[in-house]
Amino acid sequence: MTIIANLDDRTSLLEQDQRFFDALVAADTNSLNELLAEDFILVAVNDGATVTKADLLAVMASGTLRFPAIESHPAEAIVRRIAEVAIVVGRTSMNFTNPDGTTFTTASRYTHVFSYDDVAGWRLVSAQGTQITPASQPSTQ
Q1: How far apart are the first and last CA of the chain?
Q2: What's this model's pTM, rounded to 2 decimal places?
Q3: CA 22 → CA 3, 5, 26, 29, distances in Å?
Q4: What is d(CA 110, CA 88) in angstroms, rounded to the nearest whole number?
Q5: Could you tell me the sign of the dihedral formed by the alpha carbons of 138, 139, 140, 141, in that order?
Q6: Residue 61: what are its φ and ψ, rounded to 5°?
Q7: What count of other Cβ atoms lies within 10 Å of the Cβ of residue 107?
Q8: 82-116 pLDDT, tens digit each
Q9: pLDDT tens string 17-68
Q10: What are phi and psi of 25, to 5 degrees?
Q11: Cβ atoms 6, 114 nearer than 8 A
Q12: CB atoms within 10 A of CB 60
């Protein structure tokens, strides 16, 4: 059964979301390691590539992938909880520098999937971004 997350869950999950974005901007691999589940998968917003936790940590540690800025819009986020799984659908404005030195700036809609356990709390299992083009302006919730 899908339900809209209660206020405590919403707050906690949006804090985890922000921790993820903050860790990317700071290239904080220790925080990313704690936040991301071992089987984490990222689907990249710019090219659809799938990236494992190990791969993301490696490129962040090397400095070849940088996120100079990520602006999230938590007031617009849709947060749902289904038992020990939660889904956050939100919107960001971000820019980053690819390993080849090219830069990419985009507005995106993202889906983050979290799982909960009593030891680690909420951990990010999957993240996927979809670029918002001018013809598909974000809706406000």
Answers
A1: 22
A2: 0.86
A3: 28, 23, 6, 11
A4: 8
A5: negative
A6: -65, -35
A7: 18
A8: 999 999 999 999 887 877 888 888 888 999 999 99
A9: 999 999 999 999 999 999 999 999 999 887 788 999 999 999 999 988 888 8
A10: -65, -40
A11: no
A12: 20
- HEC letters along the chain: CCEECCHHHHHHHHHHHHHHHHHHHHCCHHHHHHHEEEEEEEECCCCCCEEEHHHHHHHHHHCCCEEEEEEECHHHCEEEEECCEEEEEEEEEEEEECCCCCEEEEEEEEEEEEEEECCCEEEEEEEEEEECCHHHCCCCC
- Separation between Cα atoms, residue 137 and residue 128, nearest integer Å: 18
Mean pLDDT, residues 114-130 taken together = 93
Q: Which two tokens stand for residue 15?
A: 């804090």
Rounded CA-CA distance 132/110 in Å is 10
Amino acid letter, residue 123: R
| Residue whose token pair is 């962040």 | 60
The pLDDT value given to residue 23: 96
Q: 114: closest CA among 137, 87, 77, 133?
A: 87
